[in-house]
Design a protein that fits this description.
Layout (H helix, E strand, L loop, with lengths): L1 H18 L19 H12 L8 E6 L2 E6 L7 H15 L7 E6 H7 L4 E6 L1
Parallel strand pairs: 2-3
Antiparallel strand pairs: 1-2, 3-4
């Protein structure tokens, strides 16, 4: 009787397992790196700061994926406030709150004369 019960149970399990339908679904995936700017986004930000919207800015460039340098004339004051303002503009105008940009304001004239990057101010966005 035990063998009959075991055989019946085994037959039911095999039937149940074989009747299950296995469905394969193809899923399209897109590889996105979190906290990354595209080259186009970096160029848009650079163009914005070089436009007439920002007359204080003499030059601007990305020296790394998340380091944005803005060249201005040294008026003797710290430019941390301007760097913070740049962060606000980058975050608001370009929806970059999660990007972790480091803005450095540099002495443009010193860079042109000596090729030395003299930092006048900075902010982490």
């Amino acid at each position: 009787m035990k063998n009959v019960f075991t055989t019946l149970l085994l037959a039911l399990l095999i039937t149940a397992c074989s009747s299950d339908k296995v469905e394969q679904v193809e899923v399209e995936t897109e590889q996105v790196t979190v906290n990354e700017f595209t080259d186009d986004q970096r160029q848009e930000i650079t163009d914005y700061f070089l436009s007439d919207e920002e007359p204080t800015v003499l030059d601007a460039t990305w020296t790394a994926d998340k380091i944005f340098k803005i060249g201005v004339r040294d008026d003797g004051s710290r430019r941390d406030g301007f760097a913070e303002y740049a962060c606000i503009e980058i975050n608001d105008q370009f929806d970059a709150k999660e990007q972790g940009v480091w803005v450095q304001v540099i002495d443009y004239d010193k860079l042109m004369k000596t090729k030395e990057w003299v930092k006048l101010g900075e902010a982490h966005c």
